[in-house]
Amino acid sequence: MSQITQARVVTALTGDYQDYQTNVLGTLDYLVEKYGDDYDFINIPFPNGENRYLILNAEYTEEVLQTKQKSFVKGAAFNFFKPLLGEGLLTSEGEKHKRDRRIIQPSFHMRSLSGYADTMVLNALNLTKQWEEGDLQQTDVSKDMMKLTLNIITETMFGTNIDQGKIEEVDEAFTTFSKVISSAYRGITDMALFKQQVANSIQKLQSAVAPIITERRGLETQEMDDLLAALFRAKDEESGARMTDEEIYEHVMTFFLAGHETTSNALSWTWYLLSQNPHVEEKFHQEIDTVLGNRTPVLEDFGKLTYTKAIIQESMRVFPPAYQTARQAFEDVEIGGYNFKEGDTFLASQYVVHRSKRYFEEPLMFDPERFENGTLKGIPKFSYFPFGGGSRVCIGNHFAMLEAVLVLATLGQQYKLQTINEVKPEPMITLKPKTLNMKLIKRI
Ligand code: HEM
């Protein structure tokens, strides 16, 4: 196990990273291969000469994301989202972030989420019905998972008694928004057109979502148990303040954006990895058959499906849905004896650290038992950080784990999925499989 005392920093040669924009993962793999054994930070300068440091080890990832977090902001990388998310949790900084996080956090404690388990399972069951009624032999699983997780976040946000047409309107507006952002991510060729498309889809989202918030403001929310009601009820214990409609709108948008694509990718990669590792798949089937038999999963099963949970954890190690996150130093900061400058940018990369030989034996092997048999005890905390860390750690981490485990178990009870096409990772804002066509094989 590595014992780091002095940070080792190298500046990459231009030839090392010239394909960075078009081939992110290939470039990361190449840089790690070339410099990984001897260095802890690789400086991949921006075209304007500013420094951007890729962090190669868990200890310094912890310093940036947690121990020295006060010296960092999220910085320019997140400005991309501001037109839609305003000052929601993902994009706000400083006191505003601290206050909102304090108010919202209780709504994401495990006990507050228990009411959402049924929604998660019912939506998964609906998908199996669609597969069955359509008599489908095969399907694009990454599209199905995206739709499923979007339905789940919409229903947990607004409840099920909201008009189904409205739910579809919101889902459609979000799908369009994600498509526009994703294609822009590949390289913006026409900035004016991009801005226009973003503005159009934000406008659609606004006209679908804002009226729901205004209508609900007038209603008694005590008896409602969806996320929107929780936002209305949330109160700052220190000041007694509640949130305005505009603030609620920004949080709702944030939960939509942060809360479905990541979980969808985690599920898609898991189906893929299961199909490639029959011994793991078999053990998965044994667990769900033993714990559930033929009955539908319920909240209480979450704690019993320990191998299923380990499968999701291991899947997010190999293919982390959030594969890198940026921070910018807003003051000079010392890390491992090295003096970094105000304005320096850092990339904390789940993709790089989760696949590092420093922490994991045979890192590319899919082996969920790592998370069961204690072999990960003793490795540094930030060698595995799919949900980030520090004060900006994912607020939806319990939500996501509950959802992923219940969905995997519900679908896995009825279907076994077999990969048909060659699967390639597509690193956009999140890491998704490019296309994931799978054969649907009925189990029961
Ligand atoms: C497998 C699923 C998920 C993964 C891998 C994931 C990953 C992450 C990561 C890495 C961050 C930190 C980003 C940073 O530090 O720059 C984050 C933040 C966040 N996530 Fe998640 N997330 C998932 C699911 C969810 C869900 C289901 C929700 C909401 C329902 C959610 C809401 C958020 C929010 C609001 C933040 C910002 C938190 C803050 O800065 O205070 N996420 N997520």
TrEMBL record:
SUPFAM superfamilies per UniProt: Cytochrome P450
Pfam assignment, any one: p450
Cross-referenced CDD domains: CYP132-like
Keywords: Heme, Iron, Metal-binding, Monooxygenase, Oxidoreductase
Family matches, as PANTHER family: BIFUNCTIONAL ALBAFLAVENONE MONOOXYGENASE_TERPENE SYNTHASE, CYTOCHROME P450 FAMILY 4
Family to which the UniProt record says this protein belongs: Belongs to the cytochrome P450 family.
Protein name per UniProt: Cytochrome P450
